[in-house]
Amino acid sequence: MAQKRTDPVAETSTFERGRATRRRLIETAARLGRERHGVQLSVAEIAKAAGAFPNQVTYYFGSKDSLLVHAAFLALLHDTRRIERIGRQAPDAAAFRRNIARAVLALPSLPSVAGALASGIAKAELAPVVDQHLHLLFRQSERFVSQLVDSRGWSLGRPIDVEARTFWSAALGAALLAHAGAHGTGADLDLAGTLTVHDQGGRA
Fold first, then answer.
1. What is the rounded CA–CA span in Å between residue 175 and residue 41?
2. Comparing C-alpha atoms, which of 171, 167, 170, 169 is closest to residue 158?
3. Higher pLDDT among residues 40 and 182, named by residue
4. What phi and psi values does residue 94 have, to the nearest 5 degrees?
5. Which residues, listed in sequence order, are joined to residue 198 by a DSSP beta bridge?
6. Which of 40, 147, 165, 198 is deepest in the core (most CB within 10 A)?
7. Cα–Cα distance, 173 to 192 (Å, whole number)
């Protein structure tokens, strides 16, 4: 019996459509999360807004919680682009530390990311998804700070990977505490103090 031939063009087209649907679901969930902050989103309304079917959420992500984790970190990724612009505008290292810390604590995506971290703690199947996104966040931050330090002639007091992980651990830890109901404001955290970026030859 002759084997059925597969059409490479059709397979590629199906793959690309699947990727587009997956991306659309993440972007839609991120947008709805921003617009309806604090409101529990249903699979049906996310799918409808994305022009998809509810069962596609399960097909591509396994669960709504997994989709929301992806969406939260996508929103954070978009926000960090604005943070990078703020960092590049800093006239010196002291202003960089101060401005970056202030801006990060005010990011609108932080509460959603805190929820994603809480989900990763509560549900073991989500931990690898959270870890993947944290890895990407750390690597992006490392590249940004490394390029800026090199171009400005600044210096770091520790390895770049430790710098990025320490900074984001403090910022996300503060967001997680707030998500859990802890009282306080950004003024209670010296996030700028976690950065060791300094002008060359000084501690300014």
1. 21
2. 167
3. 40
4. -65, -45
5. 155
6. 198
7. 14
Give residue-wise pLDDT tens across range 86-104. 999 999 999 999 999 999 9
**More confident of the two residues 111 and 89:** 89
| Residue 46 to residue 27: CA distance in whole angstroms | 10
Residue 119 has pLDDT above 70, yes or no: yes
Whether residue 49 contacts residue 67, with contact meaning beta carbons closer than 8 Å, is answered with: no
Residues in the chain: 204
| Alpha helix (H) residue ranges in 106-195 | 110-122, 127-152, 160-179
Q: What is the pLDDT of residue 140?
A: 94
CA diameter of the chain: 78
Q: Any idea what the Cα angle at residue 80 is, between residues 161 and 186, rounded to 5°?
A: 90
Q: What is the pLDDT of residues 120-163, one digit of tens each?
A: 888 999 999 999 999 999 999 999 999 999 999 999 999 999 99
The pair phi, psi for residue 190, each rounded to 5°, is: -90, 70
Q: Where are the beta strands (DSSP E) in 31-97?
A: none
Tell me which residue of 160, 144, 153 sits closest to 195, measured CA to CA. Answer: 160
